[in-house]
Specification:
Number of strands: 19
Strand content: 25-35%
Distance between the termini: 48 Å
Length: about 190
């Protein structure tokens, strides 16, 4: 029997391979309009985690998304063709894009063929995914983009409107386009 969210304003359902643990909050099933995972568990959301209106799980057939305990996602767009892990207590601000795949080829000839297949209603093969890992207690500022293969280490902060192309070490502040490390955080300090 399809899962529904009793408070949902959208007339949809939660896919059968989505696990919403006790006390987590998924605001609307509209977040699954682009969810196509065929994995046994395509999305797991930990206890106390929350995904608010505007969150979109654009997950391909082989994609897996794991959201840790008490993580909060505000209008986040997740493009996943491999794996995206979001650690416990992570805070991901509005309009952040996490993408583990570019989906379309970089080569112009192959990209043109890809576009022609899409226009003709054929399902072209996607570019391979490269997993993303967001560590525990990470804060990602609004309008940021995290690109394929990036790991953001525990306790790090990504400044607003940053484009993260390379991994960020634990307890670092990264910002810019492309994002660069601008300072370190003392993990034992009460302030940054």
């Amino acid at each position: 029997m399809p899962q529904t969210l009793p408070w949902d304003w959208y007339d949809g359902t939660v896919p059968d391979n989505v696990v919403l643990e006790d006390t987590c909050y998924m605001e609307t099933s509209q977040s699954f309009q682009l969810f196509r995972s065929r994995r046994e568990i395509g999305l797991r959301m930990g206890a106390g985690a929350a995904a608010y209106t505007g969150a979109m799980f654009d997950v391909g057939p082989a994609g897996v998304v794991e959201i840790g305990r008490y993580a909060m996602l505000n209008s986040v767009w997740i493009v996943c063709d491999a794996k995206i892990e979001i650690g416990d207590y992570a805070l991901i601000s509005w309009n952040v894009v996490l993408m583990d795949s570019y989906r379309e080829p970089f080569d112009p000839v192959l990209r043109r063929r890809y576009r022609e297949d899409v226009a003709a209603g054929r399902s072209p093969a996607s570019a391979p995914g490269n997993p993303i890992r967001i560590g525990p207690n990470v804060w990602i500022g609004f309008d940021s983009c995290i690109l394929p293969g990036v790991t953001i280490g525990e306790g790090s902060i990504v400044g607003a409107r940053s484009v993260v192309t390379t991994s960020v070490p634990p307890y670092s502040v990264a910002a810019g386009n492309p994002a660069r490390i601008i300072r370190q955080i003392d993990p034992n300090s009460q302030s940054i």
